[in-house]
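Structure (tokenized):
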């Protein structure tokens, strides 16, 4: 979770730094290149970049991490996302130039947690099996073998007494 939050904050920082000047200078191709590069992040599954009047870029990652560029104006409210305004500063004059919405990719996080869970379950099962084998060996060595020896001695004593 911390790594996901850090990566999304880094995307926000890069977007806040780079995108205002790209939007201010109307370089749509550079905006698209920037967005495609940010969508390659494992924790970013969607990106919407807009200026004050229209959406300049919107794209999402599919299930197999293929990029699809759909005309979206916002993401579903149920999806975890971060939205913020872009401000261009020119000679101490701040101008709102647009906005960005970043959708988190929690699927990667879920997969990692599932992998860790299965690893822990498997590891616990192996530990239980080893512990069971050690307990069995100890019980066998400390209890069962001495009882079997005692039984054999009692049998031999009983046999000798019966022979007399």
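Design, position by position:
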């Amino acid at each position: 979770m911390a790594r996901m939050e850090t990566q999304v904050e880094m995307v926000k920082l890069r977007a806040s730094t780079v995108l205002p000047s790209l939007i201010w200078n109307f370089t749509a191709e550079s905006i698209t290149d920037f967005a495609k590069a940010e969508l390659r992040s494992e924790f970013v599954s969607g990106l919407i970049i807009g200026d004050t009047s229209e959406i300049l870029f919107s794209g999402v990652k599919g299930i197999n991490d293929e990029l699809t560029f759909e005309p979206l104006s916002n993401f579903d409210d149920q999806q975890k996302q971060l939205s913020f305004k872009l401000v261009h500063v020119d000679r101490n004059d701040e101008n709102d130039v647009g906005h960005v919405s970043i959708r988190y990719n929690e699927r990667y996080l879920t997969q990692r947690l599932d992998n860790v869970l299965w690893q822990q379950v498997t590891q616990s099962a192996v530990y239980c099996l080893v512990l069971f084998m050690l307990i069995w060996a100890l019980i066998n060595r400390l209890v069962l073998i001495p009882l079997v020896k005692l039984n054999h001695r009692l049998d031999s004593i009983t046999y000798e007494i019966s022979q007399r």
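Reviewer-requested clarification: The longest helix spans residues 106-163. The chain has a mean pLDDT of 86.
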